[in-house]
Inverse folding.
């Protein structure tokens, strides 16, 4: 967390030059934590590549309005205009999709994860290949730790969704099941 | 007399005249839908996906979320919206992301709640010019607003609060003071429409906590409380999710819209228009929908005869939300004491249905006679360009319509167009 804060501060100091910068130049700040090619290598920090633009817009908006709380992100976008939010979400959607891990995943856990994804009908909104659609996010090959954290936060209502759908879905999913789901979706091929 | 499920979808979607969707008519044709094919894995109890068939067409359907940013004035789809001859439609106010339920202040202020944001807005009308102010922020799903004797009431997901003398303090309003919070905290159907009845009590619904679930005694109902939060009383049961109600100006009976369940079929059940004739009536959810379809899962061991049937059917998955009786003098005489309903529009249907504002004409006995379109065009090529949420009459008899897709409020007037609020 300290590392993230320092990076945030460092870039905040560079802010005045922003207006003249291209989106690619401004996005360097994002890449510092979220990875350069759409794939995050930082703990608990999501990969952004190939994310659905309407979903990304909703999240950036929620960070700006502090409807979703994570200080580095709240700080990062607090002075963004509506137009900035739109530009960044469109930009994120065009980054390359995250890649599956090189190891294929433990077959028993993959099987359990698959069964859980089917049982909870994740495919109903996120698509059978977890690519997402519109306001529903891409999940395929997202970081396992981030999926685990996010699903847990939806379950205990510490992360408020834009609407209540995920809180509703996660109500009946156990902690152990969340771990298997996160493992499966992160290793999905 | 035509029946909803037998009308070609294109005709319904075009907003053409829709025949009576009466209880009796539907009773003759509704057949219980076939049970969904058995899924490979059982769904956990309470899952919102219960009943969803595991096929490709169903996988394409997901709740539709509005953009978080309000449409700019010049991007509002006003040229796409259609009203009948003699009516006019204009933008009343814009720039209120996720504008939802409305209430009218004594001094003409229009209060607007939101569901996906944390804000309540006030539209102030001064010398024909309108300005939007944010009067409350940091609230949790403040969908419901009501106004009485200078006080604004706000319903969040699980509490109701008030701000006294709000219209004297629009620039620096005090924080809302909680009057009632003995409410469940479920996200599903937890957001609230509220209104104050002719009995001077505040009516507060508590939805069923999921698409199709057995609910406990604290859910699936409409309560009323005194304006200080005391004396809570349940007045209607078997209510799945009502997001709009009003009182018949002649009989003083409460009418409410109720959204039918998802995933039963493309065309059934219909959303309901209900009427409360005595305290404690049960409207059927989750055992019976639209008065004549026993739920394929929970209907076993029950009969629809146990429950009060709707007085009108509002179309499949239509999301009939805000509704008010029209009591103004501006619209033609045929609107007098009839119900104007905002249908937010479906998500759980391949060909989207609703996304319009309609007038429900009533028979002498207070049941629905027919439904006619008032505003159409929110739905274009099976995509929303706007979604109506609530309707509210202004003192001059014109009608406001909130739109949570565009973050705007529209105004419909009749006759030679006059500037709003004059």
């Amino acid at each position: 967390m300290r590392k993230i804060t320092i990076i945030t501060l460092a870039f905040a100091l560079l802010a005045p030059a922003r207006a003249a910068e291209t989106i690619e130049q401004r996005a360097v700040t994002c890449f510092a934590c979220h990875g350069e090619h759409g794939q995050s290598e930082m703990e608990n920090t999501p990969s952004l590549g190939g994310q659905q633009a309407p979903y990304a817009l909703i999240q950036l908006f929620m960070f700006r309005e502090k409807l979703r709380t994570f200080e580095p992100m709240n700080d990062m976008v607090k002075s963004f205009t509506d137009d900035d939010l739109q530009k960044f979400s469109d930009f994120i959607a065009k980054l390359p999709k995250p890649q599956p891990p090189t190891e294929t995943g433990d077959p028993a856990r993959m099987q359990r994860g698959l069964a859980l994804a089917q049982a909870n009908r994740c495919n109903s909104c996120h698509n059978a290949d977890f690519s997402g659609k519109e306001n529903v996010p891409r999940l395929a090959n997202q970081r396992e730790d981030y999926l685990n954290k996010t699903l847990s936060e939806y379950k205990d209502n510490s992360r408020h969704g834009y609407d209540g759908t995920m809180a509703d879905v996660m109500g009946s999913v156990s902690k152990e099941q969340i771990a298997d789901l996160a493992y499966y979706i992160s290793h999905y091929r | 007399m035509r029946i909803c499920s037998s009308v070609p979808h294109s005709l319904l979607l075009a907003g053409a005249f829709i025949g009576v969707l009466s209880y009796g008519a539907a009773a003759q044709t509704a057949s219980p839908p076939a049970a969904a094919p058995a899924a490979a894995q059982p769904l956990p109890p309470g899952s919102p996906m219960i009943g969803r068939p595991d096929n490709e067409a169903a996988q394409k359907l997901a709740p539709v979320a509005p953009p978080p940013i309000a449409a700019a004035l010049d991007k509002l789809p006003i040229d796409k919206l259609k009203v009948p001859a003699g009516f006019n439609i204009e933008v009343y106010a814009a720039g209120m992301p996720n504008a939802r339920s409305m209430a009218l202040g004594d001094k003409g202020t229009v209060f607007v709640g939101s569901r996906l944001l944390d804000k309540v807005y006030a539209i102030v009308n001064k010398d024909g010019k309108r300005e939007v102010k944010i009067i409350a922020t940091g609230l949790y799903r403040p969908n419901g607003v009501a106004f009485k004797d200078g006080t604004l009431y706000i319903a969040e997901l699980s509490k109701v609060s008030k701000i006294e003398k709000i219209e004297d303090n629009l620039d620096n309003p005090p924080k809302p003071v909680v009057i009632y919070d003995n409410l469940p905290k479920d996200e599903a159907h937890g957001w609230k429409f509220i209104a104050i009845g002719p009995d001077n009590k505040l009516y507060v619904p508590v939805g069923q906590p999921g698409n199709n679930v057995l609910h406990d005694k604290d859910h699936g109902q409409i309560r009323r409380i005194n304006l200080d939060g005391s004396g809570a009383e349940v007045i209607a049961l078997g209510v799945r999710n009502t997001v709009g109600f009003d009182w018949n100006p002649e009989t003083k009976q409460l009418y409410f819209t109720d959204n039918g369940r998802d995933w039963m079929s493309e065309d059934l059940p219909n959303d309901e228009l209900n009427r409360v004739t005595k305290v404690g009536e049960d409207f059927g959810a989750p055992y019976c929908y639209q008065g004549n379809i026993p739920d394929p899962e929970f209907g076993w061991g029950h009969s629809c005869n146990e429950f009060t049937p709707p007085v009108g059917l509002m179309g499949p998955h239509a999301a009939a939300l805000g509704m008010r009786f029209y009591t103004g003098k501006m619209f033609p005489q045929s609107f007098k004491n009839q119900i104007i309903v905002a249908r937010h529009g479906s998500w759980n249907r391949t060909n989207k249905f609703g996304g319009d504002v309609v007038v429900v004409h009533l028979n002498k006995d207070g049941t629905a006679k027919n439904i006619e379109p008032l505003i159409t065009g929110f739905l274009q090529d099976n995509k929303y360009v706007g979604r109506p949420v609530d309707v509210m009459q202004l003192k001059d008899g014109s009608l406001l319509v909130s739109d949570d897709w565009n973050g705007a409020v529209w105004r419909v007037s009749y006759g030679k167009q006059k500037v709003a609020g004059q």
